[in-house]
Amino acid sequence: MSAAPATASSPVGGSDRGRIVVQKLTKSFGSFRAVDNLSFEVPPGRVTGFLGPNGAGKTTTLRMILGLIRPTSGGSTIGGVPYVQLSDPLRVVGAALEATNFHPGRTGRDHLRVMATAAGLPASRADELLELVGIPAAAKKPAGGYSMGMRQRLGLAGALLGDPDVLVLDEPANGLDPEGIRWLRGFLRHLAGNGKTILVSSHLLAEVEQTVDDVIILANGRLIRQGTIEELRGHPKVRVVVPDPARLAQALNGAGIATEPGDAPGTVFALTENAASVGDIAFRAGLPVHELRRQQADLEALFFELTSQGGARNRNLGAPAAGAGQPGAAPTQAPTKAPTEHVDPTSAPTEGEAL
Ligand SMILES: Nc1ncnc2c1ncn2[C@@H]1O[C@H](COP(=O)(O)OP(=O)(O)OP(=O)(O)O)[C@@H](O)[C@H]1O
Fold first, then answer.
1. Tens digits of residue pLDDT in 94-105
2. Total domain count for the chain?
3. What is the residue with the minimal CA distance to atom 9 of ligand 1?
4. Of all protein residues, whose CA lies closest to atom 17 belonging to ligand 1?
5. Keywords for this entry (predicted)?
6. Is residue 8's pLDDT more than 60?
7. Using CA positions, which residue lies closest to atom 5 of ligand 1?
8. If you measure from the C-alpha of residue 232 to the centroid of ligand 1, how many angstroms do you get, rounded to a whole number?
9. Could you tell me the CATH number of the domain that includes residue 165?
């Protein structure tokens, strides 16, 4: 689907509401292309994982979507409108790009109150939000003493200030303990269930695989894969070890279960999740079965494969070690990135080249 023409007067409604559309987005820092001709859409009502190894270009893309840096070319819209043209951005999109830069001497409550006041919202919203993100007891403590997990929750509270349609969260699970990750998962799923658009970045697919509906995978600034997490997992399979795989395949096919050649001699894959029915069919056909196991897609391995194959080898790792590649080849070193700031949606962009 192509993006609707984006103008300041575009209505934020209909099917555009809460939809992020990125078109041919490119960002170069000098001669280094951090984001390369990226196009994707993020629909409302779903949690979308924005994934890629370190340095893939996730944060740079999010910063462009949020109007914090200017694209070299291409563009993006939120609800049909570029971020910088949103008349009331706080109610459209909330973002937390980093959870570390709060004023250390200011309490969580004061931090949120300052933001609320600047946005013309009642100061009482601060306590509501602290309650919502599960840190009401931290309200009176200076943020400098917060754990990483508490800072993440405070960042999330800030992003939720204007009850926006869209939430953009950069690595929100960083620093959360297992209980915190479970809480975050439930919280994001709840928000998506209420129709919000949730875009969550992570460099670990395994970290978000239970949370996301859709994935957008980047490597070296380029789109590698986009689809549902189910599509990525692929068809459920049962791996069977049998003395005669061809006969078992025949029996399974005869019973309406498709098969694929196995990954080793004496194996066959039945394309079903019903391991019991595979065993029953083998039994009825008089075929001994030595092993029968549901095959779980190894998403971590798949993610690694997708983001490291061919030209997708992580440029930030430099050239392969001498002996493995061309001897003496200079490493393709990416420039060191400038420190990122916590996004206060009420403030103007602060970067030198910002709009
Ligand atoms: N302001 C900048 N100046 C120069 N290079 C930059 C700048 N910002 C980012 N980069 C480079 O662009 C590339 C992409 O960085 P980005 O932070 O977008 O990646 P990322 O996918 O978010 O990585 P991570 O998971 O480590 O946060 C990196 O090589 C980074 O060094």
1. 999 865 578 888
2. 2
3. 337
4. 59
5. ATP-binding, Nucleotide-binding, Transport
6. no
7. 337
8. 26
9. 3.40.50.300
Report the 10 Å Cβ neighbour count for 173. 20
Beta strands 214-219 and 166-170 are unpaired
| Residue 244 and residue 252 in contact, taking contact as beta carbons nearer than 8 Å | no
- Ligand 1 neighbours by CB, cut-off 6 Å: 29, 34, 52, 54-60, 203, 316, 334-338
Residue whose CA is closest, atom 12 of ligand 1? Answer: 34
Q: List pLDDT tens digits, range 20-37.
A: 999 999 999 999 999 999
Range of the domain at 291: 237-295
| One domain for residues 142 and 280 | no
272 is written with which tokens? 């079903």
ipTM score of the complex? 0.96
pTM here is: 0.78
For 28, the token pair is 């170069």
**Domain contains 6:** no
Residue 26 Cα to ligand 1 midpoint, Å, equals 13
277 and 211 within one domain = no
Residue 338 alpha carbon to ligand 1 centre in Å: 8
Give Dmax (Cα) for the chain: 75
Distance 317 CA to ligand 1 centre (A): 13
* Residue 264 shares a structural domain with residue 164: no
Q: Which of 22, 31, 58 to mutate to test the pocket of ligand 1 (most atoms within 8 A of CB)?
A: 58
Residues 211 and 107 placed together within one structural domain of the fold? yes
Of the residues 212, 232, 252, the one at which a domain ends: 232
Which atom number of ligand 1 is nearest to the Cα of residue 30?
4
